[in-house]
Predict the structure.
Amino acid sequence: MFQDLQQQRVMITAGASGIGRATALAFLAAGARVHICDINAQALEALLSEHPQLSGSLIDVGDEAQVERFFSEGLDALGGIDVLVNNAGIAGPAGHLEGLDSLAWRSTFDVNLHSTFYCCKLALPLMKAARSGCIINISSSAGIMGYPLRTAYAAAKWAVTGLSKSLAMEVGEFGIRVNAICPGSISGARMDGVIEREAKASGKRADDVRAAYVSQCSLKTFIDPEDIAAMILFLSSKAGAKITGQALSVDGDTHTLANA
């Protein structure tokens, strides 16, 4: 479908599971060359073994020095970069703000926001020299709405949205496009953990929290990782050539996060 993505050089953070994995496989299917990173050694090794055409780095994206190694290894493998997908993120602590652990708060920003800064900082000189490039940052529906009991996550994702819109203004003259994707509730183990923690923090049953997430979406469903991957490929292709500076929701029309 996206034939213009053949031989495109793509780097993806947190690419061994969830949205990152779905995106890496979608790019491979389109004929792109892909280098990923992940902090989960077992998941990374399994995916690279399953798909030997992929290359990958075992790193913690919250550490700038390790991100530099990710880029060094990725550029060695690919010979350059055309598309950067900043996908890495953690759920962060759940609970009322005054009871949150300060270290957990900082860790949420390290992974969700600072890693995006580190990767963009390294990719931009190469993209500017080529006068082309596509950067896609994964924000969240929580990055455009309030999110009670998840203030660290929401604050970091709002920052990702702001970073994306501001950076698009800086680099458009170089032919570089920057967009944020705002997923809704993604099906999978990570969301299951979020629901359990929110249930504990709010004193509700996990089934009730899950039902609230479904009810706040007009399509009454969770989003699949492949739905986000499809949007990423669209934005990276010629079909998305004039789209930049946007925060694009792929969330089934999530209309509130206040009921969770």
Q: What stands out?
A: The chain has a mean pLDDT of 93.
